[in-house]
Write a structure and sequence with these properties.
With 154 residues, the chain is mainly alpha-helical. It has three domains: 8-65; 78-114; 117-149. Helix content is 79%, strand content 0%. It has helices spanning 10-21, 26-33, 37-46, 48-77, 83-114, 117-126, 130-149. Helix 3 crosses helix 4 (48-77). The longest helix is centred in the middle third of the chain and has 32 residues, at 83-114.
């Protein structure tokens, strides 16, 4: 039987990643996604971008779930009768929130450093006259309209 060159669906890859990260065998994953274990075992090598994207999504999902549990527990601790317990819970919640904000800032900075093209585009735009920018804008609108009028693939 010839091997399919079509990559597996994102849903099947995500399911395989989640099962693998939870300790499932390739055989169990193959049964669940409807492929042979040998085929599924090769997905990380054959489709590394899809696999890594699914791993990142699963890590974010798991972290979000764990964070929700932590916040719930700390919120219950805030209702404790002991002052020191409430203080520690409040301090932990504040630290958690600050950590989340730090991670968001770092992600934004990383994205900005990866997309230095934005600064290049802004520099180019600043060097252009209003007339040039207006004609480029009109051209963009025209191209967008032409694309909208193209027949859509089935």
């Amino acid at each position: 039987m010839a091997r399919s060159t079509k990559p597996p669906s994102a849903v099947r890859v995500k399911l395989a990643v989640r099962m693998r990260r939870c300790g499932s065998t390739w055989r169990a994953i193959g049964l669940e996604v409807g492929c042979s274990p040998e085929t599924v075992r090769q997905w990380p090598r054959i489709y590394p971008q899809e696999w890594q994207a699914a791993v990142r999504d699963d890590v974010v999902r798991a972290a979000g779930k764990a964070e929700g549990e932590v916040v719930g527990t700390l919120t219950m601790m805030l209702k404790d009768n002991r002052g020191m317990m409430r203080f520690r819970a409040a301090r932990s919640l504040i630290g958690l929130n600050l950590g989340r904000k730090r991670a968001e800032i770092e992600a934004i900075r990383a994205e900005e450093s990866r997309s230095g093209w934005l600064e290049t585009v802004l520099t180019i735009l600043k060097e252009r006259s209003h007339v040039e920018l207006k004609s480029v804008g009109e051209l963009c609108l025209q191209l967008a309209e032409e694309k909208r009028n193209l027949p859509q693939p089935v």
